[in-house]
Amino acid sequence: MTTATPAVRKPVAWRRVALHAGCLAALLVMLYPLAWLVATSLKPADEVIASLQLLPSRLEWSNYSTALDGVNDVSVGRLLTNSLLIAGGAVVGNVLSCSLAAYAFARLRFRFRGPLFAFMIATIMLPHHAVLIPQYIIFNQLGMVNTYWPLILPKFLATEAFFVFLIVQFMRGLPRELEEAARIDGCGPFRSFFLVILPLTRPALITTAIFTFIWTWNDFFTQLIYLFSPEKFTLTLALRAFVDASSQSSFGPMFAMSVIALLPIVLFFLAFQRFLVEGMASSGVKG
Prior knowledge:
0% strand; mainly alpha
């Protein structure tokens, strides 16, 4: 028995080593674009396009100083503030409105609840470009073009069906005895929602907040449609304006600004990744 044990454990050990080596190789492949972006942001102008080497011959820190000056006389601080304002407003709007809509579909009883929920789910398959022109006409008639309202206001109307469905799946797994106890204590639907249900749906709400922040921060097309003034640009729009204003000689500062624009997303994700995994695991298995 003792002589057979090493022979049994040896393939298992080698299999584990091979598994870890494969995971490390996959990690390196996925991290290479990020490493290339950071390295290119420190390359001299003549090496950005001409050189295929990952590491620069010398570190060009002036790329970051040029990027921090901004574009069109708008500093990076102003661009960062604009991006945070839009992303923060979108997060608050989606978390509040989608949780209210999800509570109605998951916990309340009303006529046509099933057809309305199915219609809401069907809007997930509707392309964003199909509703962009009607929305633009509405906001243009309201005088909201070239403001942040078209980018924030729809988030307060529960227009993101994916997040409504995500929170509905989570709320359906909560025991109804909690609401019944709250109703006995005199709580109505709104007090039950804010005092009982909402605190228990924190993983799903944080998942909604993370995806909303990342998608809004990286959004380019919608911001390009509604924002015209340089002082209202976000970092995403500033990258395009940076190339238009400075042409090919400033690829280094452009990549430096890309790194600056990427940092808030990385920090936001690292701060809440534990809740993201918890929320996706808890929401996806409940029906």
